[in-house]
Each structure stands twice: as C-alpha cells, then as structure tokens.
Amino acid sequence: MDLNKKEYIDKIKKLAKEKNAVIFAHYYTRPEIQECADFIGDSLALAQQATRVSADILVMCGVHFMGETMKILCPEKKVLIPDMNAGCSLADSCKAEDLKQFIIKNSQLTDKKPIVVSYVNTSADVKALTDIVVTSSNAKKIVDQLPKDAKIIFGPDYNLGSYINSVTGREMILWNGACHVHSRFSLEALLKLKAENPGVEVLAHPECKAPILAQSDVIGSTKALLEHTIQSPAKRFIIATESGILYEMQKACPDKEFIPVPPEVTEGVGCSCNECEYMRMNTLDKLYACLRDEQPEMHVAKETAEKAVSSIQRMLQMS
Ligand code: 13P
Ligand code: SF4
Q1: Overall average pLDDT of the 163-175 stretch
Q2: pLDDT tens per residue across span 213-251
Q3: I need a labelling partner for 73 at 20 to 30 A (CA). Which of 25, 131, 220, 303 fits?
Q4: 63 lines ligand 2 (CB under 6 A)
Q5: Is 130 in the pocket of ligand 2 (CB under 6 A)?
C-alpha cells in the first residue's frame, strides 16, 4: 500500500475516533477500505455487530441494502454510506411490487399461506413483505427450522435457493434472480484450473451457478470460506467468489496461495477479474468525505422499517 493511502487511512481513523463513529466493511470492498474498518464481516456478521456497538455514527462500507439493514436495526443511530449509488444487481432483480404479485399468485395455488424467506440482498421494501430474512451463512439453518410441510417462497437468488433446496430436501418456490458477479464464473476455466492443480480444493459462494457448485469442495458465505482457508492444512485453494475476499485470505494466511476463478468473457463484454463494481464504489476519498460531512445519510421510511425489522430480527433470533 503506498504512503498516500496509509496517510489517508490514518486520517480517516482519527476522524472516526473524534466523531465516535464505527466503520464497518464487507469483505468485498477494496483492501484500503478494509484497512480503515473497525469491523470487517459477511452480511450476517455486519448486521449482528451493528446491534452491539454503542457509537453515535455507523459507517457502512458495502452496498446500499447493507446500509438499509443497519438503519432498520439501529433506527436511533446515524447510518452513513460512502456512496448511495453502490447498489446490488441481485437486490435489483427483485422489485417489491413484482414480489407482491408473485406471493399472491403462489398463495392462490394452495390452501396454505406461504412463508416468504428473502435473502438479505434485498431492498427494505422487499424485506417489509418478508417473513424471515436469511444470509448465505444461515439460510440452511433457518430453512431447517421451518415446519416440514411449510410452503416456502424464496428469493431473490435462484442459485442460492436451488442450493438450499438440495441440502435441505425442500422444494421452495424460487424467484429467478441472480448476482451478475457470481453468475458469470466460467465453468470451462474452473475445469482447466482443476486439471492444472490436481487435488486443490475449490471454495465457492452459493450465489454461483449449480455447475460451479457441483465442482466445488466447500460452499459457504464469505466468512465461512475465509475460516476454511485459515483452518485447513492445505496450502493452495481455488476461489469462486468476488475477489475482494482474497485480501483478507492472503492477510490471514500469508504462506498460502489463492487462485481466483475467472469470469466468462463474452465478446466485447466482461472483465478479467471478479470484482463487484458496486463494492468498489467505496473509495478512501468518499469514505473521508462521508465522515467529515456526515452524509450521505441512510434513511428508511418509518412504515417500511417497522414492517421490515421483524423479518431481520427473526433471522437474528434463528441464527
Ligand atoms: P455474504 O457476505 O453473506 O457471504 O454475501 C456475499 C454477497 O454477495 C454480499 O453482497
Ligand atoms: Fe450484489 Fe453481487 Fe455485488 Fe454481492 S457481489 S453486492 S450480490 S452485485
């Protein structure tokens, strides 16, 4: 990391201390943003930690829905996010009005009221229509706790939903949404990497498509994958998730090697790395300005937040 970045990080940390602010960062953010953070985690850990801190200001370096979740859980706190435009293709793939119609349609087909389970990568409006929120860390654990004969609607991630169906034996009704980063990993490239690196374990996030998961040895949330690399005696791993996690993996295991699976490159489209451009919108200058000016500030309409909070709290209780 160059000196300029180090100086910037020090300035940000000093300002955060003066303002009694806590900085949270997701594993997919830039390395320099992770260096500023008081707490780095996966979606579940970030939500859990937000409820435990006593600071006046919470700064969420991640994407919009993470800031919203934080504000819903901590309505009395000032929640800032460095860039309000840091969205999420998965959250965008499920609009509340469309989900409402989907729930109505599927409720009419049965005499049982469906339980609506939503991945945390959703807007506050979608969470307000949801019975229980889940993350990739706890989806199996929570679905396992639901009555065996329950009719479950799961959204928006189709890949995660299919994977949870396969490990729980459920037949949840799935919304057809996807994350553009996780759904573009190249199976061909993965098979080539496996052939070139025989015996090396493949670690994948459950947002990846089924053929990628079928070739993987460990499937889990960002935190679960990181913990596996720390605990495993293996020295090399093939990684199928957003590449930001490699920074934490390499930091925790400097003697180990991490080989990222590249994305499919369609003619004229695609990039040579697996980066979520929304997560990368968190930059040092935006983080500094956000702390200095105490904006952009996250707001969630009171009525929406009141409806959404119970679905998130249910998740925290069942995790
Ligand atoms: P987790 O942090 O829960 O593994 O989720 C990954 C993700 O895509 C966040 O947007
Ligand atoms: Fe959303 Fe995918 Fe980016 Fe995660 S990696 S924030 S699911 S677009």
Answers
A1: 97
A2: 999 999 999 999 999 999 999 999 999 999 999 999 999
A3: 220
A4: yes
A5: no
